[in-house]
Structures are given as C-alpha cells and as structure tokens.
C-alpha cells in the first residue's frame, strides 16, 4: 500500500485564515453541527497531496502536535482526497490558533503551558460500488486533566463526488430513532450494567442512565457483503452515555425490514435487509 507520509518537526506555527464552506450533501437537512466541513480555500502548511494512496501527516512544534491520516481507498477516490486534505488544513490551522491563544493566556496568568494536540485517523467502514463509508477516531488535548476523544463519519457519494451524513439516508432522525432507538437503549443498558456492576434504572434524573438517540451518536453505515449497506454501527463518545472513566460504547445492528421502511426512497437501492 502506498503511503504519502509528511512529517514536520519543530517548525513555526503559521496561522492561515480559513473560509468555511458547507459542502456536505444533506437533502434531509439533518446534518450534525458537530461535524466540521472543510473550507473552499486551503490554508496552512499541509498542502493537498496528489491523488492516489494513503496519506499520513504529523507536525510537531513548540505549541502543538498535529497528526492526520486517511486510507488508500480515500486517496484513490476522485474528489474525496481533496475534501480530506482541505479539512486537514482547516483542523491544523484551528489547532495552531487555539494553541497560540492558550500559551498567551497561560503566560498572562502565570501558569506553565502544556502543548496542545490533535489527532484524526480516518478508516474505511465499507467500500461499495457507489459509496465509500468512512469513520474517524479523534483525540485532542488543550490543557486540563486528560485528553478528549471521539468519533466522526461521512459517506462519500462516488457518482456525485459529495460527502453525506449517514442520518441523511433516512426519512428523519426521529424516524431512525423510532426503529433503532429501542434496540440501542437495550444494548447500551446491558453494557452499562456489565461495566458498572449493577442494573441501570432510568429515573430521569441522571443523564448517564438515560437512553441515547442514534442522532446523538456517531452513526456508521457498514456492509458485510461489499455490495449493499446491511449494518448500522453506533459509536458513543465519553460523557454522552457515561462518565469519562467509563469509556466509549460501540454497537452494530443489522439492517432489518423495519429499518428499510425509514430509508429515504432514493437511497433504498443502496440498502439490503438481512
């Protein structure tokens, strides 16, 4: 596998202005505001690489450590490599600005400054004839007791060269919750009980005992046959379903006939029930 590797050590933290752009295709207008969208104008030092192969970037300065990678399938998909490269630039520039501000505030308050960090690692969930489903493991540190981590996801429409949110494949977030929500709640409470050593009782007073809706999680569209979407993955970051020490939760559910009923009509050919 070809990997385009870029490592920059102890270079100055250059700041570049970013122009935000909304290039996530969401016909249901239900895309998550937590998902960053790459800018139209790339900035920073990590310029877009030529199409083809995986990419791995690591940059270390006196202010921050920045790491970003994506797999070969993404690098070989027209339009997607550029989308990811522009997002790389945006995230790197944002980290540099936050770190500079953090160092200035620490100096003004008389505190030592600990360098910031940001890591993003994209992986393939499913590579289908018309779609490429990706997930990302995210981690960051900007001071405090511990680093934070979470997840992200997109589904790339190969024909239209556009990124989509997984929720946009369904009639609505509410429709998906009506079908998948009860299964997710049962699976989550079963795993909570294992980790906590006691049954979970949702009294309504503790958010860490409450059910979690699919659109509050990172939804993945997966496949076991390489042809159609027949699996729904759920990733729940810390602080959503439990305290940080409890870790993240991950589940996989089959696509059922009932779930097919809430898939938007134009996307039904991409799905298959088990």
UniProtKB/TrEMBL annotation:
InterPro entries: PdaC (IPR025303). The keyword Signal applies. Residues 1-21 form the signal peptide. Residues 25-52 are annotated as: Disordered. The keyword Ligase does not apply. Gene3D superfamilies: Fervidobacterium nodosum Rt17-B1 like. Residues 58-149 form the Deacetylase PdaC domain. PROSITE patterns: PROKAR_LIPOPROTEIN. This is DUF4163 domain-containing protein. It comes from Aurantiacibacter rhizosphaerae.
């Amino acid at each position: 596998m070809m990997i385009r590797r870029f490592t920059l050590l102890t270079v100055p933290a250059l700041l570049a202005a970013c122009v935000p752009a909304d290039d996530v295709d969401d016909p249901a207008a239900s895309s998550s505001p937590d998902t960053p969208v790459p800018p139209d104008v790339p900035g920073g030092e990590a310029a877009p690489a030529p199409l083809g192969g995986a990419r791995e970037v690591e940059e270390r300065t006196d202010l921050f450590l920045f790491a970003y990678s994506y797999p070969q399938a993404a690098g070989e998909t027209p339009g997607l490599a550029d989308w990811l490269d522009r997002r790389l630039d945006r995230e790197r520039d944002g980290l540099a600005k936050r770190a500079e501000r953090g160092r200035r505030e620490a100096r003004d308050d008389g505190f030592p400054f600990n360098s910031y960090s940001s890591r993003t690692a994209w992986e393939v969930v499913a590579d289908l004839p018309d779609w490429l489903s990706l997930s990302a493991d995210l981690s960051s540190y900007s001071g405090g007791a511990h680093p934070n981590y979470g997840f992200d996801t997109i589904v790339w429409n190969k024909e239209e060269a556009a990124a989509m949110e997984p929720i946009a494949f369904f009639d609505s977030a509410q429709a998906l919750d009506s079908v998948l929500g009860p299964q997710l709640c049962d699976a989550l409470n079963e795993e909570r009980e294992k980790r906590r050593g006691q049954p979970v009782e949702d009294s309504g007073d503790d958010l860490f005992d409450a059910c979690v809706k699919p659109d509050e999680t990172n939804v993945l569209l997966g496949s076991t046959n390489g042809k159609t979407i027949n699996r729904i993955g759920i990733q729940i970051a810390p602080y959503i379903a439990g305290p940080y020490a409890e870790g993240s939760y991950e589940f996989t559910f089959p696509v059922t006939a009932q779930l097919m009923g809430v898939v938007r009509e134009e996307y039904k050919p991409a799905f298959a029930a088990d």
